[in-house]
Amino acid sequence: MTGVQTCALPIFLLFLLGFWGLVSSEHENVKAYDRLLLLEGIALFFGPVANRFSAESWRPPVGRQLLLLVFMGLYSSTGLSKLFGSPAGWWTGKNLAFAMVDPRFGNTALGVWLSGFAPVMRGLGVGTVAFEVLFAPLVLFRRTNPWILAVGFSFHLGTALTMHVGTFPWVALCAYPALLHPDAARALWGLLRNRRGLSPK
Length: 201
Hints:
By secondary structure, the chain is an all-alpha fold. Helices cover 71% and strands 0% of the residues. The chain has eleven helices and no strands. The longest helix is centred in the N-terminal third of the chain and has 24 residues, at 3-26.
């Protein structure tokens, strides 16, 4: 880690604390893709680009750590606001059903159709809260990291298909590869490299 990165880290941790306060005050705002893109860009600024395809090279973890803090803050704040703000509406699925027919950010054909199935809405509502609340602890560990990111991928893809939330799902998903645990990322790169017949570097 360079001296610049070491000095800048406390500053950005304070910045992320302010970000936590911002998203906590906005509760379930689903159109914050502009701020998320800015935070991703700031975090990735600390990620080195040299030897990016070498699984053996050591890379400073500051960029990934900042991204983890951003997404942990994002999901935790929205998940906890659902859990403590209006739990009954999420356990029954009514909140999600209403969101899917909301004229501001709902009203897709698939979303309106799904909103009529109470058991589906109940399962998706509970699943949404569980994913957002559990993301922070599960993303940190090698064993659970790929699985919670797979759930997150399904979550954002489902949001893109059932709601009008701009580019938020794609802005979030573009950062997911950097959230992979380093061991999982090396294993995935090794698998892809072997399938493509690339010689190790």
